[in-house]
Q: What sequence folds into this?
């Protein structure tokens, strides 16, 4: 197993813990917005600190230079992902939420890979589509399990 796979496994485990804790924060407050704001604030402070340590104040000028309206979309999508995850954990449970998220990411990711491919390889697409079908089948079994 290579370093990148270990990184992704650790990130997956961290995401489960993050969503469990954020669902708990949401239970303790009047709105999910507290958990979302806290998540974003901690991330902003941490990343700003790392940026300043790595490149100094010049990094802020670089951020402002590349800041375009479309560059805000990833932050909006990230906040939406966290919102949907917390809501899913609270309403559907961890396994169902994760299976739906992973299955939908796989389908859209596969679609993106097909769109950006320089050539259409039916064998590669077929095996990837079969893998996606198996994952969707597993997600369906998890989602429809009896409580």
A:
């Amino acid at each position: 197993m290579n370093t990148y796979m270990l990184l992704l496994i650790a990130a997956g485990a961290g995401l489960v813990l993050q969503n469990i804790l954020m669902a708990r924060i949401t239970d303790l407050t009047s709105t999910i917005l507290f958990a979302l704001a806290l998540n974003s604030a901690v991330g902003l402070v941490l990343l700003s600190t790392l940026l300043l340590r790595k490149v100094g104040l010049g990094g802020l000028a670089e951020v402002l230079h590349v800041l375009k309206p479309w560059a805000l979309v990833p932050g909006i999508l990230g906040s939406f992902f966290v919102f949907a995850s917390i809501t899913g954990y609270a309403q559907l449970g961890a396994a169902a939420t994760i299976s739906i998220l992973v299955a939908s990411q796989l389908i859209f990711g596969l679609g993106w890979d097909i769109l950006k491919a320089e050539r259409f390889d039916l064998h590669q697409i077929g095996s990837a589509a079969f893998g996606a079908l198996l994952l969707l089948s597993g997600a369906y079994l998890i989602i429809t399990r009896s409580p």
